[in-house]
Amino acid sequence: MKRKSIFLTFGLLVLSWIGCVENDLPYPTIVGQITEMEVAGMTSCRILGASNTVEIKVADTIDLRDLRVEKLVVTEGMKVYPDSAACLDIAHFPDTGFVSADSLPAGMDTRMNFLNPVKFRLSLYQDYDWTVNVSRDIVRKIKIKNQVGSALIDDYTKNVIVYVDSTEQPSLRNIEIEELQLGSSIAQTTPDPSKVVDFTRPRVFYVTAFDETEEWTLSVQYPNANVQLTQLSAWTRRAYVSGSISKGEVEAEYRKAGETVWESVLPNEISYEGEDFLIMMTHLAAGTNYEYRLTMNGTVGEILTFTTDTIMQVPNLGFDDWVMKNEKTWYPNATLDDADHFWDSGNEGASIASRNPTAPETGDVVKGRAVRMASDYISIASKFAAGNIYTGDFVGLAGIEGAELDFGQPYTGRPSALKGYYRYTPGVIDQAKAPYDALMGQTDSCHIYIGLFDWSAPFRVNTTTGTFVDLTWNNESMIAFGELKSNEATGSEYKQFKINLTYRDYFTHPKYILIVASASKYGDYFTGSTSSVMYLDECELVFE
């Protein structure tokens, strides 16, 4: 009995000591992200991870005051706290993410008022605030008889200016409005546009929909010398001019500043869409001053000028410069200084096992040094690591298993292609995770891609939350894109490649460039072959 008493006393002392021990282990940092979101009537969605913002457009017939959230996918484990003032029934709004509102238990209500920006707070160990902005996808349509060019629309001041041909329309007292849609396609416009004919002064129209009324001012004027009906975009070796012409055709000529002979733009370099035209001037010299003039229906316009862009390469595209940090981690840059940091890889994450999936190659090269990317399995972390390289920065680990990367580096050039040499030996996929676990046993693929974006900051990738750059044209930030994907071995020799860039438009300057190469295409999802190896050498941006 005495022994039992001693053991009991000892046990109580131990429990008391344990109860006094403080838990000094820090909570893990798991970033709260909205990775997917859909609402009723949605036409597009843009998720900006860098600013924790979601930009959604819906059909112009949708009432923003009573809008159902149909999908809200967030970082696993996060609690969702929506703006209570925006919820039509806060008591029945889900407190977790969901892939479909139809799959929620009966009685749940995901309707919200999106007339103003709506806040969502995601919380696990830390709080992350997101803002969702929803707007109608309104296409404003203005067409007046004898109109010249496109209408000038100021959405902010709600002013519209339309120019008409002074010969065909000598009076502003008998203007004929053929089409006027300034708001939603179901909005009511007063007064009736077809009955307003006198535009010797600006006229006011009231556009009403969803119990809201907007006041718009429409002016009809004659063009004058100060009116610019054309837009020019000068690239490195070509330039684009867009404009409008009510009837007939347009011709264009250009020459270097100081020269006397004009060069005519070929007919196949001028395209038309309705009254709008697009002219392309080619075979230009980089960083050079030019003059050009347009001829519309036989009338020669004034001489205008432009300067082409200079050639903008990015550092170390030949992959000759390398530096080692702490005698264990390779970086594809000239020095470790921030000013020289343009490229990065997954080496920092693999450094816990003193491994470098991405390293310099000095033997098997086209010239100088090359980059060798060998996919690997890091046993100490129990994770597959694809050999890769990208323009950007490794930020750090995210949670227990993932990483955060800043994709993209500042860049304003507009190349036409990326070319270089690669050598690839694919292995059989022996590491696979969802959603690509079905690829197990298939041949691995390499991936090289280049994109130009108008981001305001680098894109924060988070492999834990599945936050990656959208490489489809649904991504409105993407200005240009091109890629190479292959599961074929190149043999013992390097193979030359050229990736042409497709541009969304010719007039937007990019702000960031993203170049990524990986020996395993789905390495971001920890899927690939530990036998896949890719070499990349002597790359450069092409300006044509």
UniProtKB/TrEMBL annotation:
Domain Putative carbohydrate metabolism: 319-541
InterPro entries recorded: PCMD (IPR025112), Put_CMD_sf (IPR038653)
Source species, domain of life: Bacteria
Short name of any one Pfam family annotated for the protein: PCMD
Stated name of the protein: Putative carbohydrate metabolism domain-containing protein
